Amino acid sequence: MNALLVYPRFPVTYWGFQYTLRLIGKRASLPPLGLFTVAALLPDHWRLRLVDLNLGDLRDDDLQWADMVLTGGLLIQVESIQQVIARSRAIKVPVAVGGPAPTTSPELFRDADVVFRGEAEGRVDELVHALNQRPESCHVVEAPASHPNMTAVPVPRCDLLALSGYASLNVQYSRGCPFQCEFCDIIEIFGRKPRVKKPEQVIDELVEWLYSPAEYYSRIEAFLSRVGSVSATRASTLGEVGALLRTIWHVGVRSPRRRFYWRLMVRALLLRGRSKVRQAVVHAVQGEHLIMYTREHVVPRIESALAELQNEIKDASRTFRNDRKDPQQLSPLASRELRLANKRPTARSRPQTKRVRLRLLRGPN
Ligand code: B12
Ligand code: SF4
Predict the structure, then answer these.
(1) Which residues pair with 155 in a beta bridge?
(2) What is the 8-class DSSP label of residue 162?
(3) Using CA positions, which residue lies closest to atom 2 of ligand 2?
(4) In this predicted structure, what is the pLDDT of residue 173?
(5) Which of 42, 96, 241, 259 lies deepest, with the highest CB count within 10 Å?
């Protein structure tokens, strides 16, 4: 099965950073975490491609390759989501939409084959079943009443991303919020009971994947391919020869990362030429330190920060439970804002609010 995951384009907006991203050589601020989390839930034997329309265009041959298209995103992306649906349907590839916008406003996506509401963990069979039915009209897969445990959230498939196109990367720690700010859809999508990942899951995402030796060494290769040679071709002093031998002993023989070290050296020599080997050695040495430092010093700090965060979330939920009589319970920040603005939460219904907001998001017409 070939599944094409398409992240729709953001229009130029306040949070799009379209006017400044190019200054730092990037095309989008963050990658589509929802879609590459869904990717990690799909059967292992499927072939996946992810196209982010904020980085480039959707090509006809990508669509022709696909047996199904999976797309979705925020309300601000509705127009682009609808275009993806139209292009998929034009060549008769079944298309499913999911994520915040289809969850909160399924009526906007009637042209899709399947509208998938809610979180995807533990529900991929439902999605596949709905797509296989090839329904005549749009089939809405409703979200169940309960939310999945965060231990069911896999490490997202970051390997599908063109990482160099993004300014930063995001990690999700929790879902759900005990408060009830009037403008916010988080409680609608994820419920009011906070759920958190286990520290090991977050560490897995951060360290085992993002700062893993494989990733670090592939970044060295990318760097060597783009940056010109800056140093002499040969070790010239006795001191340097000594350093090279010590490096070979520590990184190339004793380190558990020796496989990556030798692979880098061979590839640097064969593909980039001798002039790059010295740079490769320097980066491998730096990498040993960075990887060790991350494991020995950063991981414990992340663990204790996560434990603190978990306690804060528990406290917030407890405060909220003790004060349930107030149906408009707001976060401390939102209550302060409201007090300052000297206004009370409005009694507008959520659908009305959403329409107004959608209009605002889309612009003046
Ligand atoms: C990161 C983020 C951003 C980033 C976007 C980065 C990016 N490339 O995605 C930034 C900072 C740019 C951003 C901005 C905005 N955001 Co924002 N953002 C978030 C945030 C905090 C996390 C999103 C995320 O990554 N979640 C993690 C993933 C794993 O969850 P998920 O996407 O929901 O995916 C799960 C399911 O939905 C489902 N799923 C997702 N996609 C698909 C696809 C298919 C096919 C299927 C089957 C399932 C599926 O499966 C996933 C796993 O269970 C959410 C709040 C939240 N906690 O989710 C708000 C949120 C998505 N943002 C929101 C809004 C309103 C905005 C803004 C419009 C705010 C504004 N007024 O300016 C702007 C618009 C963006 C822009 N460019 O102008 C709303 C969306 C409301 C809606 N119904 O669409 C949310 C829900 C926050 C809120 N308070 O209501 N945002
Ligand atoms: S504190 Fe308010 S704005 Fe923040 S997630 Fe909770 S309900 Fe939404």
Answers:
(1) none
(2) -
(3) 181
(4) 94
(5) 96
Domain boundaries, the chain: 2-170, 223-297
Give CA–CA dist 76/84, Å, rounded.
Answer: 14
Structure confidence at residue 88 as a pLDDT band (50, 70, 90): very high
Q: How far is Cα 105 from Cα 294, in angstroms, rounded to an integer?
A: 42
Report DSSP letters for 320-352, one per residue. HHHTTT-TT---HHHHHHHHHHT-PPP---HHH
Helix or strand or coil: residue 252? helix
Q: Which two tokens mark 144?
A: 């169940």
Instruction: Quickly tell me which residue has 């060494």 as its tokens.
Output: 217
Residue 333 tokens read as 């920040």
Q: Residues enclosing ligand 2, CB less than 6 A?
A: 177, 179-181, 184, 186-187, 331, 334
At residue 285, does pLDDT exceed 70?
A: yes
Burial class of residue 312, CB neighbours in 10 A (0-12, 13-18, 19+): exposed
Provide the β-strand partners of residue 115.
97, 140
Query: Does residue 327 register a pLDDT over 60?
Result: no
Which of 18, 74, 79, 169 best tests ligand 1's pocket when mutated (most atoms within 8 Å of CB)?
74
In CATH terms, 2-170 corresponds, of 1.10.3470, 3.10.50, 3.40.50, 1.10.510, to 3.40.50
Type and span of the H or E element at 118: none
Q: How many other CB atoms sit within 10 Å of the CB of residue 154?
A: 15
150 lines ligand 1 (CB under 6 A): no
Q: Which of 61, 66, 125, 130 is nearest to 92 (CA)?
A: 66
Is 212 near ligand 1, meaning CB less than 6 Å away?
A: no
Positions of E strands within 114-241: 114-116, 139-141, 174-175, 195-196
Asked whether residue 355 carries a pLDDT value surpassing 50, the answer given is no
Query: Any residues with CB less than 8 A from the CB of 14 and at least 6 apart, and which?
Result: none
Identify the CA nearest to 295 among candidates 254, 248, 246, 256.
256
Determine the pLDDT at residue 346.
Answer: 47
Least confident of 186-190, 214-218, 341-345, 360-364: 360-364
